[in-house]
Amino acid sequence: MLEPLSNPFIIRAIIAVILIAFVSSAIGSLTIFRGQSFLVAGIAHGALAGAALAIYLDYYGIIPCINPMLGAALFGLVMALAIGYVSGRDSREKIDTVIGISFALAMSLAILFISMIREYAVQAWGLIMGDLLLLTSFDLLLLIIISSVTVFLVTLFYREFIFISFDEEGAYSLGLRVMLYNYLLLVLTALSIVVLLKGVGAILVYVMLIIPAAAANNIANTTSNVMILSLLFALISGLLGLAISLIFNVAPSAVAGLIATLIYLITLLIKRY
Q1: Quick one: which of 103, 105, 83, 106 has its CA closest to 95?
Q2: Region class of 65: left (phi > 0), else alpha (psi between -120 and 50), else beta
Q3: CB of 222 closer than 8 Å to CB of 235
Q4: Where would I find the beta strands (DSSP E) of 43-176?
Q5: What span, in angstroms and rounded, lies between the C-alpha atoms of 184 and 266?
Q6: Whole-angstrom Cα distance, residue 61 to residue 1?
């Protein structure tokens, strides 16, 4: 029974699930408060396009030995900052439109670059699917650094982030540097998504960042309780998904996504009845 716990791949996966849960609690909750959950999907596919481009540049010797995660980070950050710049202080409808256009652009670029790398497309598909059990020590180190910085900054600027999430105009009128905090939150979101790509994949990044927070938002009565419950739901989904994957030899991130969705449906029923 203890043998799996001596496997370094499983140990790294467990640590990654715990770190992902904290990121989900911090970034996912704020994204839900701001009503911009689709933003995560747009940045995730932008990061995927950047990774595919990096693989292409390395494959054809244009920029040898470039790390796909570097390309993912650059594209993810550019997309996040572009969304922040274009949306500015416009209405929620304008922001949704900008995010939708960015998502379509990111998907188009990702498909284009993947079609260009042919034999090496398996690397890009690995980032689409993700696998917690294939994380390297470097992947885990990167996740530890980014998640620690993210949780620290969200804790440090918690009041400011909450204020601009619920009353941006009021924050402007009080002289709060709204755009600075908006850009900081976008950067943290982009970096969080990039480091999660390797573990859960571009598609399930959205699941693990947004669904636990959305489920918590259904039943919690304060913003702090949303974050606490989001952390709990993400932990349950990730650890239970990992355990089931080891028993039935299926993808842990996919099972975690299904469990998270089930939790959301349960909280929806609790909220209604």
Answers
A1: 83
A2: left
A3: no
A4: none
A5: 33
A6: 47
Q: What is the dihedral of CA 9, 4, 18, 222, to 10 degrees?
A: 150
Residues 133 and 135: their CA atoms lie apart, in Å, by 6
Burial 62-98 (b: 16+ CB within 10 A, else e): eeeeeebbebbbbbbbebbeebbeebeeeeeeebeeb
Classify residue 6 as exposed, middle or buried by CB count within 10 Å of its CB (0-12, 13-18, 19+).
exposed
C-alpha span between 43 and 246 (Å, rounded) = 30
- Express each pLDDT in 140-172 by its tens digit: 998 999 999 999 999 999 999 999 989 888 888
Q: Quick one: which of 176, 162, 175, 196 has its CA closest to 20? A: 196
Q: How far is CA 52 from CA 41, 126, 243, in A?
A: 17, 11, 31
Q: Is residue 117 over pLDDT 50? A: yes
